[in-house]
Specification:
Elements (H helix, E strand, L loop, with lengths): L18 H8 L5 E5 L8 H11 L6 E5 L1 H10 L3 H10 L2 H7 L8 E3 L2 H11 L10 E8 L5 E4 L4 H9 L3 E3 L2 E3 L2 E5 L8 H6 L4 E5 L31 H16 L9 H23 L4 E3 L14 H29 L1
Parallel strand pairs: 1-2, 1-9, 2-4, 3-6, 9-10
Antiparallel strand pairs: 4-5, 4-8, 7-8
Pfam families: Patatin
GO molecular function, one term: hydrolase activity
Protein name: NTE family protein rssA
C-alpha cells in the first residue's frame, strides 16, 4: 500500500479543512489607501476631499502624502484635520507674509522655522508609529535623487522634508540624509500607498484640471509682424500719420505679461511635476482619481482656502457613486 512524502497512508483520503475555515483564516478587512498629491496652495482641496469621504462613511486606512499632501494627510492621521482646516481658513495675505521667515543666506529663501513651530504646536512629539492609521510621506534626497519613503520617526520632520520646495524652503536633514520636496520624484504617491498595503487606492491629483494641463503644440514659428513702412517725408501731416500707424502696429502685438523670477521658478516646477505625475500614474494607475477643478487657484494663493476646500469637496461628492461601486466590487472579490 505504501506511504506518501508526509508518511500518510496513500489508501486513506486526505481530509481538507472546511471551506468556511479557510475563509475565516484568510479574511481581513479591505484596506483603502489615499494618495494625496503635491500642489502648494491647491493642497487645501485635500481637506475637502477627506471631509466628503468621511461624511459618506469612507475612511482611509492608509495615507501616502507628497508635499502639501503630506501636510494634510499627516494632520488627518494625527486626528488634527479640524485644526489644519481652521489654520487654512484663517490665512490672509498679511498673515502669510508674517509666517515667512525670509533669509538671504542659506539653501532656501525661507528658513521655515515659523512653520515648523506651528506644526510642533499641533502635532507635538508624535511619531509616525504613534498614528492610528498607516501614514508615510515621500521626499527626495539631494545629490542622489533617491525617492525616500518616510515611514518612521518624527511626524513633523517627515512632513517638513516632504514639502521642502527647492530654492524656497531649507532642505531637511533626517536620518543622515538631506531631503527636499517629494514632488521631484513622485508627486502623487500611488506606488507608496500600495506598498503600505492598500487594496484599493484613490489618488487626488491637484493638477488634473484639463484647463491647467499642458499639451503638445505640433506646429509653431515666429510671429514677428512685418516692419511697418518708414514714414515718408512728404510734409509734417503725412509724417505724423505714418508715425501714428507705426505706433499702432507695434502696440497691436499681444502683450507679454511681466513675470517675477519666483513666479517663473514655481511655474517651471509645476510643469515638471505635472509631467512626472503623468508618467508615474501611467506606470502605476490608481483605482480612482479625484481631480478638483483648481485651474483658477494660484500655487501661492493660500488665502483662498475656503474656495479651495469647497472645490475638493465638490469633486469628491461628484465621484462618490463611482467610489462606492468600486469599493463594493473589491469587497465582494476580496
Amino acid at each position: 500500500m505504501g506511504v506518501d512524502w508526509f508518511g500518510r497512508d496513500i489508501a486513506q483520503p486526505v481530509l481538507e479543512p472546511p471551506d468556511e475555515l479557510l475563509v475565516q483564516s484568510s479574511a481581513r478587512p479591505l484596506r483603502l489607501g489615499l494618495a494625496l498629491g503635491s500642489g502648494a496652495a491647491r493642497g487645501w482641496a485635500h481637506i475637502g476631499v477627506l471631509q466628503a469621504l468621511l461624511d459618506a462613511g469612507i475612511a482611509p486606512d492608509i495615507i501616502a502624502g507628497c508635499s502639501v499632501g503630506a501636510v494634510v494627510g499627516g494632520c488627518h492621521a494625527a486626528g488634527k484635520l479640524d485644526a489644519v482646516e481652521g489654520f487654512a481658513r484663517s490665512l490672509t495675505k498679511r498673515r502669510i507674509l508674517g509666517l515667512l521667515d525670509v533669509q538671504l543666506a542659506g539653501a532656501g529663501l525661507i528658513g521655515g522655522e515659523r512653520l515648523r513651530l506651528l506644526l510642533e504646536r499641533d502635532l507635538g512629539p508624535l511619531t509616525i508609529d504613534d498614528l492610528k492609521l498607516r501614514f508615510a510621506a515621500v521626499s527626495t534626497e539631494i545629490a542622489t535623487g533617491h525617492e525616500v519613503w518616510l515611514t518612521q520617526g518624527s511626524l513633523v520632520d517627515a512632513i517638513r522634508a516632504s514639502y521642502a520646495l527647492p530654492g524656497i524652503f531649507e532642505p531637511v536633514e533626517s536620518g543622515g540624509r538631506v531631503l527636499m520636496d517629494g514632488a521631484l520624484v513622485n508627486p502623487i504617491p500611488v506606488t507608496l500607498a500600495r506598498a503600505l498595503g492598500a487594496d484599493v487606492v484613490i489618488c487626488v491629483n491637484l493638477n488634473g484640471d484639463p484647463r491647467s494641463r499642458g499639451t503638445v503644440i505640433p506646429t509653431h514659428g515666429s510671429d514677428r509682424d512685418p516692419q511697418p513702412p518708414a514714414p515718408m517725408a512728404t510734409g509734417w501731416w503725412s509724417r505724423l500719420q505714418a508715425r501714428r500707424r507705426m505706433s499702432e502696429a507695434l502696440h497691436a502685438r499681444p502683450a507679454i505679461r511681466v513675470r517675477r523670477p519666483a513666479s517663473i521658478l514655481t511655474d517651471a516646477f509645476n510643469i515638471a511635476q505635472d509631467r512626472i505625475a503623468r508618467s508615474r500614474l501611467a506606470g502605476d494607475p490608481p483605482d480612482l482619481m479625484i481631480s478638483p477643478r483648481l485651474a483658477e487657484i494660484g500655487l501661492f494663493e493660500f488665502h483662498r482656502a475656503a474656495e479651495t476646500i469647497s472645490l475638493g469637496r465638490a469633486a469628491t461628492n461628484k465621484l462618490l457613486p463611482e467610489i462606492q461601486e468600486v469599493l463594493a466590487v473589491h469587497a465582494a472579490n476580496h
